[in-house]
Amino acid sequence: MPCLIVILALLIPRVAMALIWLFTDWFSTFATWIWPLLGFFFMPYTTLAYMAAMLNNNSHVSGGWLILVIAAALVDLGHLGLGKRRKTA
Predict the structure, then answer these.
(1) What are the residues whose beta carbons fall under 8 Å from the beta carbon of 19, sequence distance 6 or more?
(2) Per-residue pLDDT of the chain (89 residues; tens, 9 = 90+)
(3) pTM of the prediction?
(4) How far apart (Å, rounded) are the C-alpha atoms in residues 16 and 87?
(5) How far apart, in whole angstroms, are the C-alpha atoms of residue 27 and residue 31?
(6) How many domains are contained in the chain?
(7) Which of 2, 7, 32, 52 has the maximal Cβ count within 10 Å?
(8) Cα dist. 51→2, 10, 22, 43 in Å?
(9) Are 70 and 61 in contact (CB under 8 A)?
């Protein structure tokens, strides 16, 4: 079952976040509800990576988990269009 959640998170992260919110208490890693909500709309991969890092690393992000969060942020920024090539005239 955990492998299915990982595959689902990579393919459709917002659906995975909704399922995680419905069936687990992983969103308790956030202090307020605003950060997961903003993450849902703007940076879903980063939100999922941060939740995984906080849950698996005793409530702090370091080491390999930090690399995962940074990589997820770069993927999210690429999806927002910041990785788009510029047209040359």
Answers:
(1) 5, 8
(2) 677 777 877 888 888 888 888 988 888 888 888 988 998 999 999 999 988 888 877 777 878 888 988 999 998 888 777 556 666 65
(3) 0.78
(4) 35
(5) 9
(6) 1
(7) 52
(8) 14, 14, 15, 12
(9) no
29: containing domain: 2-79
State which amino acid sits at residue 6.
Answer: V
Name 35's Cβ contacts closer than 8 Å, sequence gap at least 6. Answer: 47
Whether 41 maps to a domain, the answer reads yes
- Could you tell me if 65 and 56 are in contact, meaning their C-beta atoms sit under 8 angstroms apart? yes
14 assigned to some structural domain: yes
